[in-house]
Amino acid sequence: MWFGESEANVREIFDKARGSAPCVLFFDELDSIATQRGSSQGDAGGAGDRVLNQLLTEMDGMTAKKTVFIIGATNRPDIIDPALLRPGRLDQLIYIPLPDEASRLQIFKACLRKSPVARDVDISALARYTQGFSGADITEICQRACKYAIRENIEKDIERERKRSENPEAMEEDEIDEVPEIKAAHFEESMKFARRSVSDADIRKYQMFAQTLQQSRGFGSEFRFSDHPDNTSAAGTGPSDPFASSATTNADDDDLYS
Q1: CA angle 167, 169, 170 (to 5 degrees)
Q2: Cα–Cα distance, 190 to 144 (Å, whole number)
Q3: What phi and psi, each to the nearest 5 degrees, are found at residue 71?
Q4: Residue 44 belongs to what domain range?
Q5: Which residues form a coiled coil (predicted)?
Q6: What is the pLDDT along the chain (258 residues), one digit of tens a residue?
Q7: Residue 198 located in a structural domain
Q8: CA–CA separation, 194 vs 190, rounded Å?
Q9: Domain with 69 in it: what CATH number?
Q10: Is 73 a domain residue?
Q11: Which of 57, 84, 155, 202 has the most crowded CB, counting CB atoms within 10 A?
């Protein structure tokens, strides 16, 4: 609300982290406060840039306190300010892909751990069928199936009350009230509306970004210490002939890119 209040809130969060050390400071949806500086227009006099500057300053001040770990999560890594990703800040970038079959099975079990599921429901088959689904997509499938089971149970209760009102004498005996369960038919109906929130194009974009990031940071470089310190050409770093090794590897170019 007031000028400088956002920066003060950032300082307060980091002060609490220092006072609670050891601790983990987690920023979800990091792109909301860490967009590239200068890209926001009309945001109350550049408030977003000031918040990011304060965030960078606080991260630099964490070097003396090794017991505070800062983690950020985002699905828009392309708009994060590069200064936030430099070494000493959020320098360890990890690409988390969509869950595989084993992970999807555990997500189904976690979503249904408190729900009565019928024995005829094969959760493993659901995990195999939901290739490319995210955790949120799987959660939606389970919630929709649960709603179908609740709706069916409510309709049975309404029908039972209707029959009891029409013929009270015939309904004097106590009926067995079955425990409602989520049956296979409910999951089959739910799968008709199942959808993927992450498309193949988005997956390829994230994979290309992760690959480009690794290449820009020099991951996989062929650096080796030489066995002969006086002979720099033995390590492949001699300045006299920088292309000496290229002639010996041309024959294997087809294998390198096959």
Answers
A1: 70
A2: 6
A3: -130, 135
A4: 11-85
A5: none
A6: 677 788 888 899 988 988 888 889 999 999 888 888 776 555 555 777 888 888 888 888 776 656 888 899 998 888 888 888 888 888 888 888 899 999 999 999 999 999 999 998 999 999 999 999 999 999 999 999 999 999 999 988 888 888 888 776 655 555 665 668 899 999 999 999 999 998 889 888 888 887 877 666 665 567 778 876 555 544 444 444 444 444 433 444 444 333
A7: no
A8: 7
A9: 3.40.50.300
A10: yes
A11: 84
Strands 23-27 and 68-72, bridge-based pairing? parallel
**Per-residue buried b or exposed e for 187-215, using 16+ beta carbons within 10 Å of the residue's own CB:** bebbeeebeeebeeeeeeebeeebeeeee
Q: Which of 85, 118, 140 is at the close of a domain?
A: 85
Domain end, chosen from 53, 85, 117, is at 85
Q: Which residues are within 8 A (CB) of 40 and not within 5 positions of it... i.e. 6 or more apart?
A: 46, 48, 49
Whether the CB-CB separation of 84 and 56 falls below 8 Å is answered with yes
Q: How many domains does the chain have?
A: 2
